[in-house]
Amino acid sequence: MAVPGHLSTAEEQEWVQKMVPKLERKRAQNAGKMRGGPSGDQDLMDHALRLSGRYLDGRARPKSIKWVDNQNTRWGSATPANESIRISSKIRGMPQWVIDYVLLHELAHLLVAGHNTRFWQLLEAYPDTERAKAFLEGAAFATSRGLSGETGLD
Ligand SMILES: [Zn+2]
């Protein structure tokens, strides 16, 4: 879901106006699924270990994983040296399949540091990888233009 590079500002605005409601509708559709999702840090750890077991043969086992509020430019980050993961609380409102992708992405970084072929192979088992990447690109794009999603459109 890359924004076509040749768009004028007006056209770009129009593109955003079209894409954001789509994301919002998806989000509303998935709101039900979210309720069962991770809430506290312990829930987040339990959920991460389930995902690791299901998609990474249980090989990624973080020592710590927590929600953080002060992460403005990244949805998540991993420090392989001390096997810790931080997940931005900004993704809390996103559909569960996007949250799961972010968790798996960071879990995979405990096994492979960079974004090389081996890294992406780890994420192949997860069926929503491409869709989630597109969702996050759209969300980052909207956020960088001050569209909060909550109040940007009715
Ligand atoms: Zn990464």
Task: Describe, in short, the structure shown.
This protein has 154 residues and is mainly alpha-helical.
Detailed description of the structure:
It is a single chain. The protein is mainly alpha-helical. The protein has one domain: Metalloproteases ("zincins"), catalytic domain (Zincin-like, 2-Layer Sandwich), CATH 3.30.2010.10. The protein is 50% helix and 9% strand. The chain contains 5 helices and 3 strands; from the N terminus they run ααβββααα. Strands 1-3-2 form a 3-stranded mixed β-sheet, covered by helices on one side. Helix 2 packs across helix 3 and helix 3 packs across helix 5. The longest helix is centred in the N-terminal third of the chain and has 26 residues. The chain is globular, with a radius of gyration of 16 Å. It starts with 8 loop residues before the first helix and ends in a 10-residue tail after the last helix. About 4% of the residues have low confidence. Zinc ion binds next to helix 3.
Give descriptors for this structure.
binds zinc ion, mainly alpha, 3 strands, single chain, Zincin-like, globular, 154 residues
Question: Would you spell out the secondary-structure blueprint of this structure?
Answer:
Layout lengths: L8 H26 L6 H15 L8 E5 L7 E4 L4 E5 L7 H14 L7 H6 L6 H16 L10
Parallel strand pairs: 1-3
Antiparallel strand pairs: 2-3
The structure holds zinc ion.
Helix/strand/pairing category: mainly alpha
CATH class category name: Alpha Beta
Beta-strand share of residues: 5-15%
| CATH fold title | Zincin-like
What would CATH call the architecture?
Answer: 2-Layer Sandwich
User: What shape does the CA trace take?
Assistant: globular
| Number of distinct beta strands | 3
Largest sheet descriptor: 3 strands, mixed
Percent helix among the residues?
40-55%
Number of helices: 5
Give the N-to-C terminal Cα separation: 23 Å
Radius of gyration: 16 Å
Distinct small-molecule ligands in the complex: zinc ion
* Average pLDDT taken over every residue: 83
Question: In order across it, which strands form the biggest sheet?
Answer: 1-3-2
